[in-house]
Design a protein that fits this description.
The structure holds two protein chains of two kinds.
Chain A: H1 2-10, H2 12-48, E1 54-58, H3 66-69, E2 72-73, H4 75-81, E3 86-101, E4 106-114, E5 126-127, E6 135-138, H5 140-143, E7 152-155, E8 160-167, E9 173-174, E10 177-183, H6 184-192, E11 207-208, E12 210-215, H7 223-230, E13 232-236, H8 237-241, H9 247-279, H10 281-289, H11 294-328, H12 338-360
Chain B: E1 3-14, E2 21-32, E3 36-40, H1 47-54, E4 62-67, E5 70-71, H2 77-87, E6 88-91, H3 103-108, H4 122-128, H5 144-156, E7 162-166, H6 174-191, E8 194-198, E9 210-215, E10 218-221
Parallel strand pairs in B: 3-8, 3-9, 6-7, 7-8
Antiparallel strand pairs in B: 1-2, 1-4, 4-5, 9-10
Helix pairs in contact in B: 4-5, 5-6
Classes of the chains: A alpha+beta, B alpha/beta.
Amino acid sequence: MFLAIRELTFARGRFALMGVVVALIAILTVLLSGLSVGLVNDGVSGLKRLPVTSLAFQHEVAKDSAFSRSVVETSAVDTWATQDGVAEAAPLGNTLANGRTNEGIEVDLALFGVEVGSFLDPAVAEGQRLAGEGEVVISSTAAELGISVGDTIELEPAGTPLKVVGILGEQHTFGHVDIGYLPLRSWQEVKAGVRAGDAAPERIYNEITAVAVRAADGADVDLAAGDKDAGTTSMTLEQSFGASPGYTAETSTLQLIQVFLYAISALVVGAFFTVLTVQRKQEIAVIRALGASTRYLLRDSLLQSVVLLVLSAGVGVAIGVAAGAAISATPMPFVLEAAPIAVATALLLILGVVGATVAVLRITRVDPLTALGGNR
Amino acid sequence: MTAMLSLSDVTLIHGDGEDTVTALDKVNMEVEAGELVAVVGPSGAGKSSLLAVCGALISPTSGTIRLNDLDLSAQSPRRLTAIRRERIGFVFQSGNLIPSLTSLDQVRLPLTFGKVANPRDPRELLAEVGMSHKADRRPHQLSGGERQRVGIARALVTRPQVLLVDEPTAALDRQRSQDVVALLAREAHEHGVATVMVTHDHEVLHHCDRVLEMIDGRLLPAESNASV
């Protein structure tokens, strides 16, 4: 560290310039991480909070749009309930709907139809749990729009009224839309477009979107065998995230941006240390002639890059977290979580060091002979 | 007395095939401890090549170089690096100091490369070369002569057996040239360092114990040439 520290303080302007670039990349990394987590939460937080291990959709349904396309017979629920390792199985309905409250608040809802009393029937933080038809419990994020317990939401276009009886404790969203849990029969009528008071054909009460399956603790459910018996196509809960509207496109886009950011970071750091090493060629030749080993020079240069990266990335992350905290207070889907930020920062540092390593390896090619004058 | 540095039939050929240059041609030289030997000669005669082989920066094509009891041609590259660190000191043209280091840190630098058995105290050494008052100055804050003094202190801090000096007066005026070479002679004599100095400056040769002349890669006693 003898040379590294002295050079950092001597050429502080040059290193500060590089540090600013790394810090800006770190800020962008933190913001992208927050946006990524926020979008994931906004897209599938409702699915994440379902107490299920897998979902059985219609046989051979398109996997990227299974929630909107799948229609499963209710009889499949019983079939799944008797599979080995399955603790519970329950019907789940899913559809998107627009509504308006009696207070005139417009709201979009992802309606999750569940059997009242089943393991899917959610606990509430405010009000009461579902008890009968025509009731709905809504996500806390929908309540932030101004909807409260006791309000009535009228769904379009059939005009189906749903009374808000409870509000969930946390964010429950699906495809960036707030979730409303309602009794399965009410969901089936909304899905079929049955107007309030009209008679509904009996067949609609046999149709659900998927069978929600919860495996017994430690059990490994044979999904293929269950699908064969029930005539369904199963996805694990994590796999079903990809069936949420826009989820795959959003996450893959953000991941691609992050990958490019890491690559740019490595290239920028590598380019900086390449220029630095070329500029120091005569100096390095002198140091080698004086008896410094290649290992000494590599260690010194790499430590220099690590100090620069850690300090500037630290500053960048701190600024990014502060900026992120401000953004979190806005309606933007943005969530700061320690683990993704730590992973992103670690990747930034590792790839930065890789870039610097490739650059400083040029040291091994500096001939100490060039330290002598031009009379050779 | 036994020679601290001895070269026996050392030949150095650069390039290969038809495009070869004989930089050193069967050079024989012995330098005793505490002796200052100057090597003069025209540009391109092979003076810096002589320093390079003496300093284990390049291996000769043939011949033997011995550093006290050590045959340099029998050493691995890693061992040669350690030998440069422990037994050889270099003084370069214009000092060739590290821009980011103060004078004191320039002298400390070789001691950070690895273990040195019996190093000299960097502050005392700076005082000895008359630079203690500028210990915290960086190279761009020093004159040419001062840079050379710091360079000499840096070369001596490890108590080398051999000191190799490359054109120490190239960028100095007459008085400073005399001062720098007088300092080299004093250090060589007082501390028993076998010193080889390559120079174009004939006005400093009276400080030296012996003068050799290099012409076309061959080393001759200076007396044989009327120009010295």
